[in-house]
Structure formats: structure tokens, C-alpha cells
Amino acid sequence: MTSKKARLIQGNRACAEGAMAAGVRFFAGYPITPSTEIAEIMSEELPKLGGKFIQMEDEIASMACIIGASLTGKKVLTASSGPGISLKQEAIGYACMTEIPCVIVNVQRLGPSTGGPTSSAQGDIMQARWGTHGDHPIIALCPSSVYECFTLTVTAVNFAEKYRTPVYVLMDEIIGHMREKVILPNIDEIKIVNRKRPTCPSNEYKPYQIDETLIPAMADFGTGYKWHVTGLFHDETGFPSGKPKVIEEQFKRLMTKFDKYSDEILSWEETEAEDAEILLVAYGSTARSALDAVNILRSEGIKVGLFRPITIWPFPEKRLKTLAEKANKIIVPEMNYGQLILEVERICKDKASVGGLFKFNSLPITPEEIMFKIREVL
Amino acid sequence: MRPELQKLFRMDKLPHIWCPGCGHGIITRAIAEAINESDLDLDKTVIVSGIGCSSRAPGYMHFDTLHTLHGRALAFATGVKLANPELNVFVLTGDGDATAIGGNHFIHAARRNIDLNIILFNNNIYGMTGGQYSPLTPTGKIASTSPYGNPENNFDIPALAIAAGASYVARGTAFHDKLLIDCIKEGIKNKGFSLIEAMSMCPTSYGRRNKMGNAADMLNDLKTTAVNINVAKKLPPEKLEGKFLIGKLHHKPYPEFTQEYDKLIAKLQKGAE
Q1: Does B91 touch chain A (CB under 8 A)?
Q2: pLDDT attached to residue A3
Q3: Is the pLDDT of residue B157 over 90?
Q4: Residue B201: which CATH number?
Q5: Given an 8 Å threshold on Cβ–Cβ distance, is B59 in contact with A65?
Q6: Residue B56 domain boundaries
Q7: Nearest to A356 by CA among A371, A373, A376
Q8: ipTM above 0.85, yes or no
Q9: What domains are defined for chain A?
Q10: Which band of pLDDT confidence, cut at 50, 70 and 90, is reported for residue B271?
Q11: Which one, A127, A323, A360, B201, has the greatest CB density within 10 A?
Q12: Is A35 helix (H, G, I), strand (E, B) or coil?
């Protein structure tokens, strides 16, 4: 499937290949632009690997379907875009609550509603964090190149398995449809993580056990553990409980389970950020324009840097705070009306002035526009 | 409870949450009897449900059980069965769960003829939320959201399932429990989408508002309104007015989805050798 030769491939293909390399053997989806290529590739490749592809009757069903498949022990994926991701929210919340590993790819398009199916946007940043009702934890990874579509999908599958959680791969249309030269890693170079499975006798199994790992073991359906899964608040045994103490204990474990592993989960990339007086915070395709702007302006002696969060949720807060102490000004370019800037403002408000460069007319943000903005605030 | 049935239940979770007089307990026992008599591998049996009164049944049953989202049980069950076709998968659902919010999943699961055993508890009402009208509340009947009588028409669930592609369709009732057990057993044997509509009764949220008497009266109504399909065949149409049919209504086996998919895998993998 992968080889060490250089190839010219699309982000959506790199994502699909990353998923299969990470061990995904089940895909359920529904056609939607601009993510459809992922489903098409999976429908062709998965059965060759003994895996399963199914095109469900709608987006809600495809999300539910991968959760069901994950419960049998399979690594699972679905892919969609704005309108479809909105429909999936109900079952994403179920996966958060029941802690079922699964990966959701969102190739972002212009929204709201039908919006711009073939136009790029980054308008689902907050939806990824808070799309489903109620407090819940989530991980969202944001690739900025075709190569990263591959590697971050592998990471997303690994995180889903290790932390028993849904994980988003938050692409955008430009990244999904862009073709780039890549040399993908061989299968044997890829680190694979499998979920923790119980080894205890079935009558001792607690699928939501609170221990120091905060991540309980998960039994495959059909292996004799005979456990109960419910979207109701449940105790350590998995059965419904309305006791305030039980709800609070399980809620706390759920909401804090990533904190313990933040060193592993949080990732970002810095370019000339250490001594930057003006710091750009950019992600996805926009980070590519931001990188160009940094390189050009640095050659003119302007101290500009780039902080690119790769893990968007949870946000790499500590590091940005440190950088903000040195930078006077922070600029957040994004293809929306201003979303991640809210998080940046929250983190940096006492350290630096934060301004945005927002574009929401279906066109990408260019390096020139970013440079113009920087010169404006100099 | 007989010992052979006890092993199919989580005895420590009983008694159940259903109201006195509810028909769901009888139907749940019928499911357990059918499983017990079908010699299924209990470790390889999964019970999936949606949301509603009927969907609480799996919580009492000692299997891998999946209590999902309102209307979505069949979509989850499709994932379970396709991912591991070795598993025997049951779906317990209600009239609102399966035919209102879950109507689309219902017809598409039937269309695929995926090997699932669906037991649809039909109590003609949304019981869990306190008695709102469902697609199976008879026209004219009172519900908390149809205080002047239900102005809508009903689905004919077996006809819907047959039209959509179900390969086995039957109906039993909380009164005709022996027949219900036989229908479920036949459904288990059928390799494909098997739908068993189980007529239940809800004295609390439906019968009370419609002055249908107590639970025993409602059970008696099921007895007198149901006509076995074998008997019905010999009756003139006027004798069947206001009645509903019970028994095996449809059985037409044809290729099952997960088996067909496995054949595709085998073919592709053989081609690659």
C-alpha cells in the first residue's frame, strides 16, 4: 500500500492510506463534498485487506455504525464535511460518553448550512470542540500538508485507541484536495497502538473503572465479558446510575482523562517563534501562507514567527503562553469569522495584544494579505 | 424464574422499571425463551436497543448489550454485525423508536437484508416520555399530544418491512406468547432481516387516556382483536374488519448482506494471490 518512492497524491488519499496503515478495517460513510474521495478509496481498498466498507443511509447512521463496529474490536473511521458533521454530533456525543474509540475526518468546507461545498474554510473549529451537547472531552488534530494527512490520521487512530475516545482529523478543503509530492513511511516504520483489553475474569470486569490510568480497559463484544454500554450516566460497571456522587466521579474522570497525557497529546510546530515580536498563530492550509509570510519578512529583518498548533483540541496552551510573554503582538489568520482567536485571546490576553485576519469568502488567505496585516501593526 | 432462563438475565438488575401491567415483561421473557430454545452461543450474542421503554430491556439481559440513541439502534447493530458476522445480533426497539425517528434506518436495514433479529415492541404510544402519540397510535385515539384525538394515520409495520426488503416478518402479542416465541425462533433461523412485531400494552400512558380498562382488559383486547393468519385465510373479509393478523406473515429468504460482503472479500483476496 505504501512504498518509499515519491508520489504525487491528494490529502484525502493520504488520509485514507494513513487510516489503513494504522489498522483501520471498518469505514462507514455517506457521500459529501469535499471528503468523498476518502470513502471512495476505502470502498476499493478495505475489502482487499479483509476490512469492511459500508455506505449508510445517512450521516447519523454512518457515525452510529462505526461505533457499533468499534465495539467488536475493529479500528474504525468515518469522513465527512460540515453538514454531515452536524448530523453526526448526536452519535459523537455517544462515543464521548461511552468512550468508544473512533476517528472522524472533517474536510472543512464553507458553512453554515450547505454553504460552499467546494470552497475551503476553517469554520468548524468550535464545532469540533463543542458540537455535541453537554460537557465532553475531545481531541482534534489539524494537518497542514498532504504528508501530515497521512501521519496525523495514524496518530488519530492511535489516540482513539489509547485514550478510548473519538478523535477528529480536522482538515480543510485545500488540504484535502491539494496534491503534493510525498514519500510516505513504510508500514514497519509506523507506530501502532491497540486499545487496552481486559485480562480479568468477566465477573470482575469494570468497563468504566476509575484507576490511576483514567483509561479503563475495553472488551470486544463476543468475547464473553457481557458488558453493558449506555449513553446514560453510568457507574464503573457500565450500568445506569443517577447518584450524584457517581455522576460526579465519572464526569471528572472523563473531563480530565487527557490532562494526564498532555505531553503526548499536545503537538505544535514553531518557526522563528522563540524571538518573535510578532507571532502568527495559524493552522491547516492557512499555516502554509503564514509560513511564507514569516520567511519573506524575516529576510527583511522583521522579527516575525509562527506558532502552528497541530493538536487544536486540547490546545497547547502552556507553550503559547510562554511565547506570548516575549511577543508584543499576536495575529491569528483563519478562514472563518474568528474562532480559534477566541482561544488565543483567552490564553494570551494579559501577555500580548491579539488581532485577527479573517477571510470567509471562499478564497484562501494569501501570504501577501498576512504580510500586509503585519506591516499594518508594526 | 426457571434456572435456564435465569442465566439469560442479570438477576441483580431486576425488578425492571416498567409500570405495573406493562406488556414488555412478557415480550422480554418470550425473547429469552426463544434464545434459550435456539441453542445460540450466549457469548456470541449481542442485544442492541435504542431509547424508550422497550429499549431498557437489554439492561436486564446477560449478554453484550448496547443501549444506544433514540432511533439509531439498527445503525449501531449494522456496525456490530458487519464488523463481526459471527455474532448473533438482536435489536429491541419500540414503535416510536423504529418507525418515527428511526424510520429511515428501519427501511434501509431491511433493504440490505442484513442478518438482524428485530423485535419491535408496539405499545402504540411514547411511554417513556409520558404518552405522546406515535406513528402507531390509532387514528382518533387520545394521547398527551393528541388531546382531541390523533389526526394522523398509522404505519402497517409488517407491510413496511416487507416492501423494504425484510426476508422474514411475523407478528405476535403479549397475550399470544407461545406464538411470539415461535416467531422469534423462526426469525433467528432466518439468515437475513427478521422483523417480529410484538403487540404490547401500555395501561399507564395509552389505555388510561382511552378508557381501555386495566391491564387484563387490554390483554384481553389483544386476544380478541388478533386473528391467526392461517385462520384468516379461511375467513371472509368482513370478519377481519378491525382485526390484525398474527403469525408468520412473510418468509422469502434471499442473499444476506454480510455473507455477500464476505464473498466479495474472499474473491478479492483470492484474486490478489
Answers
A1: no
A2: 54
A3: yes
A4: 3.40.50.970
A5: no
A6: 3-272
A7: A373
A8: yes
A9: 7-189 (3.40.50.970), 269-377 (3.40.50.920)
A10: confident
A11: B201
A12: coil
